[in-house]
Amino acid sequence: MDLGEHHIMSGSSPAASLVGRFLVAAPSMPDERFQKSVVFICKHDDEGALGIIVNNTVDDLPLGQVYKQLGIDVPSSAAAQPVLFGGPVETSRGLVLHSADYKRDETLLINGGMALTASLEILKDMAAGTGPRQAWLALGHSGWGPGQLDHEMQDNAWLVVDANPSLVFDADFDAKWQRALDQLGGKAGGGGKFDPASYSHQTGRA
To answer: What confidence tens digit (pLDDT) does each residue in 28-44 have?
Structure first.
């Protein structure tokens, strides 16, 4: 497991940057790895995009076990906390998606009071109670090369909705996809509910 320090660099952002928003897999998502996924976009520029799936977890690997593997004392509050499966890219690499009240030199600040840090030190601080107020450790991430995400958007593989920390850090993982879709229902005057069965490949932006 790679939890060494990484600087997450951003290039120039495109005019329609999706940083700080959710990509919500459309009901017609063709890629099985992303079906019913909710991805928080951390980076989106002319070099590509990087996001963390926030509604999928790594089976049988709680945060407490990660701490033990790294030689960190395990606080009782973290023993059973889930670890996110952030995506199919670099699945042995750890990234911490967290509230922006915590910052290190290598931290990438994101819109909406969110941040991303890749270092062993943040895990030590989390275990000691001096880390961010809210945080998920994710193994792996979701990545797109230059123009790749824009192409998928044109194919309506994704719906875009505003992100919020309450949904990012909610532990009811099974409900997150529908809750994110319900934001579309609210905007369309549908009483706050979005019926996936009614989706017909319309444009994905909300």
So the answer is: 899 999 999 999 999 99
| Domain residue extents for the chain | 21-198
The count of C-alpha atoms lying within 13 angstroms of the C-alpha of 28, restricted to the half-sphere facing its C-beta, is 13
User: Backbone phi, then psi, for 60, in 5-degree steps?
Assistant: 55, 35
- Residue 26, judged by CB atoms within 10 A of its CB (0-12, 13-18, 19+), counts as buried
Number of H helices, E strands in the chain: 5, 9
CATH of domain 21-198: 3.40.1740.10
The whole-angstrom separation of Cα 181 and Cα 176 is: 9
Whether residue 26 contacts residue 81, with contact meaning beta carbons closer than 8 Å, is answered with: no
Is residue 44 within 8 A of residue 18, CB to CB? The reply is yes
Cβ neighbours of residue 154 closer than 8 Å, sequence gap 6 or more: none
pTM: predicted TM-score of the whole model, two decimal places: 0.87
Identify whether the C-beta of residue 137 lies closer than 8 Å to the C-beta of residue 119.
no
- The predicted-structure confidence for 82-130, as pLDDT tens digits, reads as follows 999 999 999 999 999 999 999 999 999 998 899 999 999 999 999 999 9
